[in-house]
Each structure stands twice: as structure tokens, then as C-alpha cells.
Specification:
Shape: extended
Biased composition (Pro residues): 270-286, 331-346
InterPro entries: Adenylate_cyclase-assoc_CAP, Adenylate_cyclase-assoc_CAP_C, Adenylate_cyclase-assoc_CAP_N, C-CAP_CF_C-like, CAP/MinC_C, CAP_C_sf, CAP_CS_N, CAP_N
CATH topology of the domain at 70-231: Serine Threonine Protein Phosphatase 5, Tetratricopeptide repeat
Helix content: 25-40%
Biased composition (Low complexity): 251-269
Number of helices: 9
Organism: Dispira parvispora
Domain C-CAP/cofactor C-like: 356-493
Oligomer: single chain
């Protein structure tokens, strides 16, 4: 009897043990399903698989599973590999680097939501409010990354690390680039590479962590370019049969079904994720449209965006003209014969918002912009580099080294000194400019300029100078000997044209006296 009693006890314990194992496996399976649902952020529902009735009168599940598009799944893989490695390395360094990384983490999530939205709606017009509203959070993240860099400008080593990220984060703006977003990402990557090289040089043989971190950031941009090349080669892929962007609902905004009871949960399969958003019915196509790349230009107009609006007269106001209330649209006023609309007045320069000065290298091109006063020095490193100077006043600019080309555009009272240029030096749309070449230059172009003084070294004796729509141009050439002064030669402004033998011959006017 004792043996039989012990056998019964052991059998009961084994049955209890197996029951606990089954319950533990069920709980683990549910937990894994929940984690996967939260990680993907997609709203899916389980498919109807037979009738698993728990009690009499229960209905089988008739909802169908909605799969994510391949472009979103591939983006999730990119985030789980390249982005995660960069975020982990940033967290290890901490401080402002981690602060930038947290903003990029939010930017990546917002971009994933945007790609998912594009797979469900058709391409909206550039004036669509829903489209611009969806872009604003991404723009704010990119601006925040640059603000973090600006706050730490005093720390040179940290500033170079933050600048590498700030210059490269613009690659995530590929979603509005058509038709070649991949080269755009490569351009942003090259911009970041300038500061990446500085970081590698600064921490060489000192600290391997920043070196590994900056390499992971470049690897993230490389992974982004590979993803875009595979799924969005000519621009962000939209759904031509999708709905209107104004009616789009982000996944997860709908309410989830009630959870099953405790008794039913023990015997049924794991709980399904939340249901998908309602399918948006596509309305008739609108007449408007436009390129996505021009959206940012529309947003950046500021106050000038209302320049095309006109004043509404009393006859067109519905509260003063009851006859218009029954109509659907206000009729256009008859145009006066021979009368043109007044031109839109330009904003005075004093009211124009000043842009911050900028001196930076993008790919192989130096940009020197918006300087007022002071001195700017640019150190070129090769003949492939070029220099573009724009909207500078009362500034002295020195460009050292042998480089490809230089252009001065819309400058006033600017003195520029360069060494040697391989291709062409240009001065356009400028006034009261002094331009000196201490080395050599094969050609000089002056277009729409007034009051330009050019000083050439003796090495520029064979230079070719082209002028168009210019006045008060003086060219001074250095003498053959060091003790000789510059020889000043004014460029003729008056031209005379005559027909000789059926051909028009033009020559400068010479004043004798």
C-alpha cells in the first residue's frame, strides 16, 4: 500500500510538473509576440485559423493578417544593424554625442513612419498641408542635431565629432530628393568625411573609442545609401492606388480588441496584436501636383509666401453682398483693359533677415557666405577643390594653395587674394571689389560688375580676361622687376561697331587729346 501511495504521489508530481512547463511555454510565446509587435510598431492582426471555440456561441476570428511592405521590413533591418551599432557606440561615449544620437534615433523612427505612410497613400501635391506637416518633425530633428553642435563650439575636439554628425545627418533628407536620392546621400557622407578625417587624426594612438564611433556613423550612412538604392532608387516609393494623405492614420491609433478571459487564455493560442488601421478609400485625383524637392522651397519663403494674394473688395465679401452666399465661388472681377497688375514690392534690405556667416567644405567645394566685416582664410588642399564666395560685404578673403576655380557672387567691398587657380576665376554681380592673384591663373571672367580692381602677378602675363556688362574695370599687372610698380590698364567701356565688307566690326572707342 505504501508503494502504491508513493507511486500515485510521484505520478501527480510529474503531471503537475508537465503542466507548469506547458503554461510557462505559453506565457513565453505570448511575451515574444508582444515584444515583436512593440519593436516593429506595426498594427497587424492574426489570421482566422479554424474555429477555436472556448464556449458555446463564440465566433471564430475572421480578421486577416496585414504584412508590412518589403521597404519597411528592410528599413527595420537597417535600423537593427547599422543604426543600433551607432547608437550603442554613442551611448558609450555619452555627453553631447549621446544627445545627438538620441535625436537621430527619433529621426530614424519618424522616417520609418513616413516610409510606411508612403506605402499606403499616393503621392500628394506639394501644397498639401498633410504632406508638409509630416515633414516638419524630420526637419526639426535635423535642426536639433546642428544646435547641439553649435552649443559646444568652444570644445575643439568635441566640436569636430559633433560636426561630423551634423554634416552627415542631412542624408536622411533623401525622402524629398528626386530622381537621384542615392548620390545626394553620398554628398552628405562626403561632407561628413571632412570632419571624420579630423577625428581620426585627433584620436590616433590616443583613444580607440571615438575612432570606432565615427566609423560606425559613416557605416550607418553607407547602409542608408544601400537601402535607398535597393528600394527607392528614383525617389521615395508611393502607392499610386493608395488613399489621401489627409485621411491617413498612423498605426496603433485604433483601439485594440478586449483581451480574452483567463480560462480561455490557458487553452487558446497567443493573443493577437492590435488590428490594422482602416483602409482609406482613394478619392478622385486632384488637379494640383508638384515635385517633392520643391516643398522645402515653399516652406522657406516665410512672409513672402503671401505675396501672391490680392486684396478682397467689398463686392466680393459675402457678409456685405448677400447675393454671393448662395453661390459656390466668388466670381473673378473683370480685368480692366490695358491695365497691368502692380508689381510686388521687394522687401527693403534693412528688413531682410540676415543669414549666419558660413565657411565650410562640402565635398570638394568651399562655401564662404554672408560675412560682413573681418577676415576669412581658406586653406585648400588640392586642385579638385573650388571656392564659392557669396553675399559678403566689407570682408577680406584669402585663399591659400593651388586649387581648381573660384567664384565671387553678389559681393560688395570685398578684397580677395588668391594664390594659384588651375581653371577660371570669376567675379559676377559684384560692386567695389578688389581681386588679386599672387600666383597664376589662365582665365578671368567679369560679368555684371562695377568698380572692380584686379591685381595680377607677373606670372599672369598670358591670362585671358573676359568682361560682360561691366563698368569701371581696372587691370593692374606687376612689372617685370621687383622694384617696378604695377601697370594699370583700364578696360574700355565704350565700343564702336561699323560694317566693313558686309561684316560688323566692333572696336573700343579711343579718345585722342
Amino acid at each position: 500500500a505504501n508503494v502504491l501511495f508513493a507511486s500515485v504521489i510521484m505520478s501527480s508530481e510529474q503531471e503537475l510538473f508537465h503542466s507548469l512547463i506547458r503554461r510557462l511555454e505559453t506565457a513565453t510565446q505570448r511575451l515574444e509576440t508582444f515584444v515583436q509587435t512593440q519593436a516593429s510598431g506595426s498594427a497587424t492582426t492574426s489570421a482566422a485559423k479554424g474555429s477555436n471555440s472556448v464556449a458555446a456561441g463564440t465566433c471564430p476570428d475572421t480578421t486577416a493578417e496585414v504584412e508590412l511592405p518589403p521597404s519597411v521590413l528592410a528599413y527595420d533591418e537597417f535600423v537593427a544593424t547599422s543604426v543600433k551599432q551607432y547608437l550603442d557606440a554613442s551611448e558609450a561615449l555619452g555627453g553631447a554625442i549621446q544627445e545627438q544620437a538620441e535625436v537621430i534615433q527619433r529621426l530614424v523612427q519618424l522616417q520609418r513612419d513616413f516610409i510606411l505612410m508612403a506605402s499606403q497613400v499616393r503621392l500628394p501635391p506639394m501644397t498639401e498641408s498633410g504632406f508638409s506637416d509630416s515633414l516638419k518633425p524630420l526637419q526639426e530633428c535635423i535642426s536639433t542635431v546642428d544646435e547641439v553642435r553649435t552649443r559646444h563650439r568652444a570644445d575643439k575636439a568635441l566640436f569636430e565629432e559633433l560636426s561630423a554628425v551634423s554634416e552627415g545627418v542631412g542624408a536622411f533628407g533623401w525622402i524629398v530628393i528626386e530622381p537621384t536620392p542615392v548620390p545626394y546621400i553620398q554628398d552628405m557622407k562626403d561632407s561628413a568625411q571632412f570632419y571624420v578625417n579630423r577625428v581620426l587624426k585627433t584620436f590616433k594612438d590616443k583613444d580607440p573609442k571615438p575612432i570606432e564611433w565615427v566609423k560606425l556613423f559613416i557605416a550607418m550612412l553607407t547602409g542608408l545609401a544601400e537601402y535607398v538604392k535597393a528600394y527607392h532608387r528614383t525617389g521615395l516609393t508611393w502607392n499610386p492606388k493608395g488613399g489621401d494623405i489627409k485621411n491617413y492614420q498612423k498605426p496603433g491609433t485604433t483601439s485594440a480588441p478586449a483581451p480574452p478571459s483567463a480560462s480561455a487564455g490557458a487553452a487558446s493560442s497567443p493573443a493577437p496584436p492590435p488590428p490594422p488601421p482602416p483602409v482609406v478609400a482613394p478619392p478622385p485625383p486632384s488637379a494640383g501636383g508638384g515635385s517633392m524637392a520643391s516643398v522645402f522651397q515653399e516652406l522657406n519663403k516665410g512672409e513672402a509666401i503671401t505675396a501672391g494674394l490680392r486684396k478682397v473688395s467689398k463686392e466680393e465679401m459675402t457678409h456685405k453682398n448677400p447675393a454671393l452666399r448662395s453661390g459656390t465661388a466668388v466670381p473673378a472681377p473683370p480685368a480692366a483693359p490695358g491695365k497691368r497688375a502692380p508689381p510686388v514690392p521687394t522687401k527693403p534690405r534693412s528688413l531682410t533677415k540676415k543669414k549666419p556667416p558660413k565657411c565650410e567644405l562640402v565635398n570638394d567645394k568651399w562655401f564662404v557666405e554672408n560675412y560682413e566685416g573681418g577676415e576669412v582664410s581658406v586653406e585648400t588642399t588640392g586642385m579638385r577643390q573650388s571656392v564659392y564666395v557669396f553675399n559678403c560685404q566689407n570682408t577680406t578673403i584669402q585663399v591659400h594653395g593651388k586649387f581648381g576655380a573660384i567664384t565671387l557672387d553678389k559681393c560688395h567691398k570685398v578684397g580677395t587674394v588668391i594664390d594659384t587657380v588651375v581653371a577660371t576665376a570669376e567675379v559676377i554681380n559684384s560692386k567695389s571689389v578688389k581681386f588679386q592673384i599672387t600666383g597664376q591663373a589662365p582665365a578671368l571672367l567679369l560679368d555684371k560688375c562695377d568698380g572692380v580692381e584686379v591685381y595680377l602677378s607677373r606670372g599672369c602675363s598670358d591670362i585671358e580676361i573676359t568682361t560682360a556688362k561691366t563698368s569701371e574695370i581696372n587691370i593692374s599687372l606687376q612689372g617685370a622687376e621687383d622694384d617696378q610698380d604695377f601697370k594699370e590698364c583700364p578696360v574700355p567701356e565704350q565700343l564702336r561697331s561699323v560694317f566693313k565688307g558686309g561684316k560688323l566690326v566692333t572696336s573700343p572707342v579711343e579718345h585722342v587729346g
